[in-house]
Amino acid sequence: xxxxxxxxxxxxxxxxxxxxxxxxxxxxxxxxxxxxxxxxxxxxxxxxxxxxxxxxxxxxxxxxxxxxxxxxxxxxxxxxxxxxxxxxxxxxxxxxxxxxxxxxxxxxxxxxxxxxxxxxxxxxxxxxxxxxxxxxxxxxxxxxxxxxxxxxxxxxxxxxxxxxxxxxxxxxxxxxxxxxxxxxxxxxxxxxxxxxxxxxxxxxxxxxxxxxxxxxxxxxxxxxxxxxxxxxxxxxxxxxxxxxxxxxxxxxxxxxxxxxxxxxxxxxxxxxxxxxxxxxxxxxxxxxxxxxxxxxxxxxxxxxxxxxxxxxxxxxxxxxxxxxxxxxxxxxxxxxxxxxxxxxxxxxxxxxxxxxxxxxxxxxxxxxxxxxxxxxxxxxxxxxxxxxxxxxxxxxxxxxxxxxxxxxxxxxxxxxxxxxxxxxxxxxxxxxxxxxxxxxxxxxxxxxxxxxxxxxxxxxxxxxxxxxxxxxxxxxxxxxxxxxxxxxxxxxxxxxxxxxxxxxxxxxxxxxxxxxxxxxxxxxxxxxxxxxxxxxxxxx
Length: 540
Prior knowledge:
20 helices
């Protein structure tokens, strides 16, 4: 049973998305637990400002090289090689290609990390200009430890791409859980020993565990490592060509985060911590719904790229499923943001002023949840067609908008202004991606999407109204000065709102609700639904 779970292939988009979403939920819950520990132990002050600033550049290195190569070129080309293999048991060409990618990117990561360690002080001065000499010194020391993590995450990212290509989503989905566990271990057990440096070693431990959990399955699939650097191989060159604009696209997105970090470092102490706390909270539904569905459907999109009807059907169904979840999540985040922040972060040294600032920042982030959750799918449509240039140019416009708006709005709204600028820029990004994708692909099944979204919005309005009213009803019966009282008020209001949302969707005969419910029933151990056609495009 366990062996089957770890090594079984998952071909259904909906099943894969559900599995990735569930693991993402666990990972995000661990992330919430991690943030609660950090908030309670350190508060929104200098220590966490240092930690988040130090984290930014190592994260930049990983995102540029590994995510650039994987999302743009590795998975489509690896999938293609698998389909072309004459010997389906050995997959020699695919494994040789994988080894070359590992060696080339591994060397690049080692080289960049060494350079970053050497020049970490001027880098930190550039990206945290508001820090005084003492904060800057600690930030430099932490960043040098964290520069060990990109190598582990890089190797793990390549292996994750292999697992996605073989549709082994279970093991792939465990990696981020292990990463968060490592960071939590650092916060709970290494900080008492090494002080703030324990946080950095926790990140390194999490990155190592991210890699380690995937290795057994990789070798079970037949991977044979070869020490080779074949720069002239056409597939390697193809990855390079596709990777360049994707890497540039990620570069400007990372520069955007670095600029946000730099701007936040010039604001009041704790602003950078508040920005990251609020960003992590709003990323919760994005990771569970947006990224999970986009990740699960990407191999299918790559395989259907030459069949326009199937490609559009898969895109339309996936987007509607994402929006089915993300629209009510947006409403509940806006209505219950105070309860969410107080329950998740309101403990220890995280005081009331920190709480208020995080609530405001989270509210502005929430405005663009629909765009942020949809962008990973839109971008993967371009990558499936091996077009990574347009997302780059569109991202350039979006990031430029974000930087300009952040500089302007932060003067009036502080760190909350950076969140508002981020939301506006993501809506711009979403809009431009849609326009240019439609020009390239043609009709994206907009009418069906519009009908579904109209139903979701109508249901979400009732969801928000009921949640708001329920808060007022519950308030006199609980002690709002206690954690359990705030949690109970938020939980009851949230459940009431979701119940009404699902009820309205059912009355409006939402196809997405029906698909979700049927999929849920099929997975019950005592219930089986027979279906004549289990086609991916229909999301069954």
